[in-house]
Amino acid sequence: MEYRTLGASGTVVSTYALGTMTFGNETDEAGAHQQLDRYVEVGGTLIDTADVYTAGASEEIIGSWLAKSSARDNVVLATKGRFPTGDGQNDVGTSRRHLRRALDASLARLGVDHIDLYQLHAWDPITPLQETLSFLEDAVRAGKISYGGLSNFTGWQLQKACDLIDRQGWSPLVTLQPQYNLLVREIEWEIVPAALENGLGLLPWSPLGGGWLTGKYSFDEEPTGATRLGDNPERGVEAWARRSKNQRVREVVDTVRSIAEGRGIPMAQVALAWLVDRPAITSVILGARTLDQLNDNLAAADLHLTEDESTKLDQASDPGAADYPYGGPGVAQRDRPINGGRG
Q1: How far apart are CA 162 and CA 99, in angstroms?
Q2: Which of 168, 217, 264, 300 satisfies CB 3.0 to 4.6 Å to 272 for a cystine?
Q3: What is the DSSP string of 298-310?
């Protein structure tokens, strides 16, 4: 396992994090504990969860593991709050009222008195941003959290949050969790530059594109069986009907397969190795149903692609930005020669 700092903070984490959205749903407690044991055994340190993962069961399962594990001092624990935790009008959002209750509930389920990274799970258009960010600052000062982070924020939302924190002199945010993989690269247009500018490390979720980058889905036959799309072919952003008809998806999958066959390794490891070396990446979040899946992914921990392999993947997965502002002419305007002039 390799290590990097958690954004611009001084805390060090492994370059692969363990995502736990499956815990309590697709993965039972025994299986989850096996994953946790294996993850820390190979040197993993960053465990990511959220209060809404299986209605709190994921946090409870992690809490029961922490209570019996000797690895607690080495684990960097991350969770999130924002989405509904009840049916009331104030059981959702990033208001002080909701976040205070959500954070205390997460601490109780995890069985700890402190969370290393507390993340806003998404933007809240109703709550004033100053109210939300001042809560994070108070939580840091109270010793309940070490750092604040974001998840699923756009570029302008990220920048607005960082600017407000800077003006107030509050503790800086350290991370952003976006969807990012070879099939979803549009965050490179605004979100990645904003993260780099503000010292935020990226914690990408869905690094395997919901399974598409593992090669397990056919483009010609709707999936069935014990896979996420087999259970629900229209599941979320990775829905089969939409992606199976996308020529760019086919080209990316074919390129990943070609590189994997050339190295004699699973496709998933190629996709993970491409992502972990992208700019601003702190740690890539692995999510697995089974211990075997986790072991396959963890095998990418010390894998790095050659420049030629990365270039082939870059070209195949290029999302095709328009000329301006994200294409060639727009990008060219963002730089200038040091000696000036019209040439």
Answers
A1: 19
A2: 300
A3: HTTTT----HHHH
**Tens-place pLDDT, residues 24-80:** 999 999 999 999 999 999 999 999 999 999 999 999 999 999 999 988 889 999 999
Classify residue 275 as exposed, middle or buried by CB count within 10 Å of its CB (0-12, 13-18, 19+): buried
Task: Retrieve residue 223's tokens.
Answer: 């999936």
Q: Which two tokens stand for residue 260?
A: 């994997």
N residues, the chain:
343
Q: pLDDT digits over 81-113, tens only?
A: 999 999 999 999 999 999 999 999 999 999 999
Q: What is the mean pLDDT of the chain?
A: 94
Cα dihedral 150→154→155→156 (10° resolution):
-100
- The DSSP bridge pattern shows strands 3-5 and 12-14 to be antiparallel
Average pLDDT in the 297-304 region?
96
Backbone phi, psi, residue 184, to 5°: -130, 90
Active-site residue, selected from the candidate residues 3, 16, 39, 53: 53
Burial class (CB in 10 A: 0-12, 13-18, 19+), 268: buried
d(CA 250, CA 18): 28
Question: Kind of pairing, strands 76-81 and 115-120?
Answer: parallel
Say what the pTM is. Answer: 0.94
With 0-12 / 13-18 / 19 or more C-beta atoms within 10 angstroms meaning exposed / middle / buried, residue 340 is: exposed
Structure tokens given for 91: 């059981």
**H or E, element range at 286:** strand 284-287
Token pair belonging to 331: 């990008």
pLDDT in tens, 120-177: 999 999 999 999 999 999 999 999 999 999 999 999 999 999 999 999 999 999 999 9
- The sign one gets for the Cα dihedral 133, 171, 106, 56 is positive
Helix (H, G, I), strand (E, B) or coil at 120: strand
DSSP state of 334: T
Give the span between the Cα atoms of 207 and 200, in whole angstroms.
18
Do you find a cis peptide bond into 325, omega within 30 degrees of 0? Answer: yes
- Is 53 a known active-site residue? yes
Amino acid at 51: D
